[in-house]
Amino acid sequence: MTQERSQADYLLLTPGPLTTSRTVKEAMLRDVSTWDVDYNGVVQRVRAALVDLATGGGERPATTAVLMQGSGTFAVESALGTALPRDGVLLTPRNGAYGDRIGLIADRLGIARVDVPFEETAAVDPERIDEVLSAHPEVTHCALVHCETTTGMLNPAAEVGAVCRSRGVELVLDAMSSFGGIPMTMESLGADWLISSANKCIQGVPGFGFVLARVDRLAACAANARSVSLDLHAQWRGMEDGGGKWRFTSPTHVVLAFDQALRELAAEGGVPARFERYRTNQRRLVEGMRGLGFRTLLDDALQSPIITSFHDPVDPAYRWAPFYEALKRRGFAIYPGKVSRAATFRIGTIGEVYLDDIERLLAAVGAAIAELGYAVGG
User: Fold this and answer.
1) Which of 51, 17, 30, 77 is closest to 239 using CA atoms?
2) Mean pLDDT of 178-198
3) Is 205 helix (H, G, I), strand (E, B) or coil?
């Protein structure tokens, strides 16, 4: 059943920012001081909740959570710029725009790397990763995108993590669009570092990212950072020593919203229940879109429940902008395609979105196509 949410011009069917609950929005309706003990207690509660989500709450290597101002990419750059020592070498398997971005960050930071490209419609191959690591024993870290939202691909993180551990390589996992929405622990994925953002599957609002790290790994990184503001080690020490105090002005309203979002995740039944909702949304979306004549870009076996890429209609008259606007008028915002070798658009199935929303979307897509007169398949 759809939960109550505030009236909006359209429902965000995107991989983040995404549609949030009314109560998450209402959590931002008060101002707090960054020096306030109660506020810093909220920060500490959030950090502890993230560690529990990332570890399953059981026995595990000591793990910590560090919050970092900015979008998820800021957190990725912070993690890479801190985790990699000056003589470290990064392996960059990539099969989409966000893997490419990791490579760009590494290059800009002057981090040596070994590049392993894959096709956008193919998953990262653990056997190929093992071969490359065997040929490059100088590699110290591997940075993998778990859910590549360029396409909706879910990469085999656990298998890649197992290869990395067998080679003594630390896995830096970009779980931006999967953490909180797909059951996982850092231990099960073999991740030493895990990165995500407030405005993804935990269903908060944009404003900060976070890095979960093994304490022994992070503690060894004091001299690594290439940036002052993105120094993850310094941010961690500041939060540890200051009882939740951020080094620089924190996004207070966003933290309050995220604290509420964590409560709502727990009330829903935790990650397993949220995963089931997302998976139900995505499966019905695909079934309904195929019924309207659309084709998915990826095979079902490669597809995440987060976002799905569909081929554009075959009609030569088709244009993205009129289609987008026709859906927006009907109350839905979707994403343009990001694939380099195919004409596609994308629809997300995460956030405060339920099965009846997907049914309404399918009706809206059918009506939009009829209004515009596009032939879909062929």
Assistant:
1) 51
2) 97
3) coil
Amino acid at 5: R
- Best CA proximity match to 36, nearest among 329, 298, 244, 337: 244
Q: Mean pLDDT across the stretch 356-361?
A: 98
DSSP 303: B
Tens of pLDDT along 121-150? 999 999 999 999 999 999 999 999 999 999
Tokens encoding 42 = 């909220």
pLDDT of residue 338: 83
Distance CA 343, CA 301 (A): 21
Gap between the Cα atoms of 244 and 45, Å rounded: 9
Q: How far apart are CA 192 and CA 161, in angstroms?
A: 9
Per the document, the length of the chain is 378
Which residues are within 8 A (CB) of 271 and not within 5 positions of it... i.e. 6 or more apart? 53, 180, 181, 182, 183, 184, 265
Statement: the pTM of the whole predicted model exceeds 0.90: yes
Q: Phi and psi of 259, rounded to 5°?
A: -60, -45
| Amino acid in position 186 | M
